[in-house]
Amino acid sequence: MGALSLSNLEKSILNSMLEPALVIDTEGSILAANHAWNNQPFHVSESVRQESLGKNFIKHFADVPLQRGISRVFQDQIGVFFRKISYLDGREAYTFICRVTPIKNENSETLGALIVFYDLTNHTLLEQYYKQGIEKYRNISLFSRDLIKITDMNGNVEYESPSHHDVLGYINEANIFMKVHPDDISRLKEVYAEVGNCRDSVKVEVRKQHKDGQWMWIEAVCSPIFSEEGEVESCLIISRDISERKKMELEMEQMAFFDSLTGIYNRRKIKQIMEEVLDEARLSESGAAFLIMDLDKFKDINDNFGHDAGDAVLQEFAKRIMSCRREGDYVGRLSGDEFTVVMKGVRSRGDIYEFIKLFKDSLRPSILLPDGFTRLKIRSSVGFGIYPDHGSTTSELFKHADVALYKEKRRKSRYNVSRR
């Protein structure tokens, strides 16, 4: 095992540190001390500090717990050791966290240790002010409408405000994950990991179950709480009910992306879906298809039976398309009586022909119009474009499907009307 020595660069790096720092060998001798160490009062005389190089840190500066901690680091019983140090310098009180980190060679042999002192004096004062005013903070928690909760980093609840009972209908929850929607648990666990790793606040939206069984949307800000050693030991969660806001967002989404008559996707949303499905097909080197279908002679339906009848036919037409789609496929209304199905994971044309047959079979039962006695049989024409056979962009595939649609329409006969 070679002796520990520092290069000029390593000494420069040591001196650039704002915190007091030392390097010692395995015997405890101080090999290097930075400027911050020499400028700190600590609990030793100035003459000892100025002559610290070569002195034994363990004998001259370390108390018994710190001596034991350094010994454990050297013996590889612990990776890093923390020790809180408090002392008085006249009337001034100081608090430091001492961190001992082993220095090893390329063979993982311990040659010495880096000892850094982090000043927690201001942090300790703030903590004292908080404890003195804890009754004030408790009252804030009592009367706050926000949900205030403290958990450990495994989600075990250490404190929760009374407002939980008012908002959720219950209190004294054992673990924060217990009443979270199953689809949101993994995201909340990711947030806990992020708080612990990034040591910063993270915002998240999850669904929590009310006492009555209903799901509520909760917006939570999760913030780290640090131990005296500077490690994240707990999580402070301040959350609120945003169910009304989510309801409004859902209504706005319905208006923006769903057809008001049929309830399926509108043209804007389906075009977005087409692009996403095509991107996925390119990445996975799989097939995709865009189908366009419309009602034969739909104008005659409106002219002969009125627009209410036409609307009823469109609604039923959309339902029958939806009843035939495969899991994962998308159905949308492009305009008027023109609808589309976006199919992903298409293995061959057989997948498309199977859907078209199922769809046309679904049109055989007649539709009862709003007048209550007229039944109408409808027919539909279908065209499709397949990726990559018929094009590599949505516009190319859409054009191919549109041309195929109108080729079929020219071969079709009129619709039939029957009365009961």
UniProtKB/TrEMBL annotation:
Pfam families: GGDEF, PAS_3, PAS_4. PROSITE patterns: GGDEF, PAC. Residues 78-132, 202-254 form the PAC domain. Residues 286-420 form the GGDEF domain. NCBIfam families: GGDEF, sensory_box. This is Diguanylate cyclase. It comes from Paenibacillus physcomitrellae. The lineage of its organism: Bacteria, Bacillati, Bacillota, Bacilli, Bacillales.
